Amino acid sequence: MKHIALLGSTGSIGTQTLDVASHYPDDFQVVGLAAGSNIKKLEEQIRCFKPKMAAVWDKDKAKQLKENVSDMDIQILDGMEGLCAVAAMEEADITLTAVVGMIGIRPTIAAIQAGKDIALANKETLVTAGHIIMPLAREKGVRILPVDSEHSAIFQSLNGEDRGSIHKILLTASGGPFRGRKRKDLESIQVEDALKHPNWVMGHKITIDSATMVNKGLEVMEARWLFDVEPERIQVVVHPESVIHSMVEFEDTAVIGQLGTPDMRLPIQYALFYPDRKPLIGGARLDLFALASLHFEKPDLETFTGLKLAYEAMAQGGSMTTVFNAANERAVAKFLDRKIRFLDIPEIIGESMAVHTPVASPSVEEILSVEKTTYEFIESRW
Ligand code: NDP
Ligand code: MG
């Protein structure tokens, strides 16, 4: 029996994780849940899974939830303290991090310090603090198990292989809803257009990140930390069918990949059951004959400048990836609020990077301070 603490339980990854847990009641027990403000959904989850602890970021909502579940034996906490407490709770064996954004840094560190294995969906944490998280995980002897589908595919392709023999990582990308379009075609993009992903149903932030291809930039950064591979060895391959979830090319020219239908429950389940495989309840099997053909393209870095900026941020290193991420988080929030245009997103990232002088190996405090300065810069300009 594995005991799971789940951060971001009310979101897309969170609810799919609970779906997996509900299919395997003898294997998993959910002991902790955390969300931002959706206490209606969180209460349903609490009544269904009966965790010992739950946290809500919003303090007033946490108070309200506490009243709503006063008939139950559960501790309700709030804010960052609550998030960290759930992440590191004594009863948990594994903490699945599915909050959105770099808000996940402190709880992930708290979980690792408490010796929990991490099933990591929250890529923004590795993007900004990978240089802190990975050595800390090694020091504490905990596993960082990828949930992001591409990284799970790479992880699966590396099973039993010597990581020293990796020649290249081939990180696949669907290309998002605007694949094949040019910059001028993107000038009038509306929020509704950008939220229509061709292959995956996900939270709003990552869906916009997929449309700008910033998501792939974040994933290159994530892969670089997870697999200890230099960014130059990570090739983005646009593959519109999203069937090959990613591949590894080895020194001897062999290429090993993981294929499947697009269903996030597989990488979630793989991380939770690792190293075992179990049936994916309700999962569709890949029908190669129905597919008939697969396609591959080079990414268009002139149109999707967010991806180009990601490589630039990695080349400059240190705190520059925090600026890249923080600027994107703020720009996406503004786009979703209809305050800026679609093409302003990479523009804001680029301008924010241009005014920043990177600090090498920033501490958590420095990362959070760079985040704040980036937000202030953006507020002063847009
Ligand atoms: P969603 O927006 O669907 O869900 C986000 C979750 O985080 C919600 O439970 C939300 O709570 C919670 N949350 C937000 N802010 C806070 C906060 N301050 N404190 C506590 N909880 C908070 O996002 P996704 O599930 O799509 O994505 C989650 C992470 O997983 C992201 O990092 C994303 O990049 C990554 N990922 C997602 C994939 C997907 O298929 N969705 C695929 C691969 C990676 P509330 O509902 O109350 O707001
Ligand atoms: Mg992904």
UniProtKB/TrEMBL annotation:
GO molecular function: 1-deoxy-D-xylulose-5-phosphate reductoisomerase activity; manganese ion binding; NADPH binding
Domain 1-deoxy-D-xylulose 5-phosphate reductoisomerase C-terminal intervals: 144-227
Residues involved in 1-deoxy-D-xylulose 5-phosphate binding: K123, S149, E150, S174, H197, S210, N215, K216, E219
Swiss-Prot/TrEMBL cofactor(s): Mg(2+); Mn(2+)
Keyword Magnesium: yes
Pathway assigned to this chain's UniProt record: Isoprenoid biosynthesis; isopentenyl diphosphate biosynthesis via DXP pathway; isopentenyl diphosphate from 1-deoxy-D-xylulose 5-phosphate: step 1/6
Keyword vocabulary terms for this entry: Isoprene biosynthesis, Magnesium, Manganese, Metal-binding, NADP, Oxidoreductase
Primary role: Catalyzes the NADPH-dependent rearrangement and reduction of 1-deoxy-D-xylulose-5-phosphate (DXP) to 2-C-methyl-D-erythritol 4-phosphate (MEP).
PANTHER family: 1-DEOXY-D-XYLULOSE 5-PHOSPHATE REDUCTOISOMERASE, 1-DEOXY-D-XYLULOSE 5-PHOSPHATE REDUCTOISOMERASE, CHLOROPLASTIC
Full protein name: 1-deoxy-D-xylulose 5-phosphate reductoisomerase
Organism of derivation: Candidatus Onthocola gallistercoris
Lineage: Bacteria, Bacillati, Bacillota, Bacilli, Candidatus Onthocola
Protein encoded by which gene: dxr
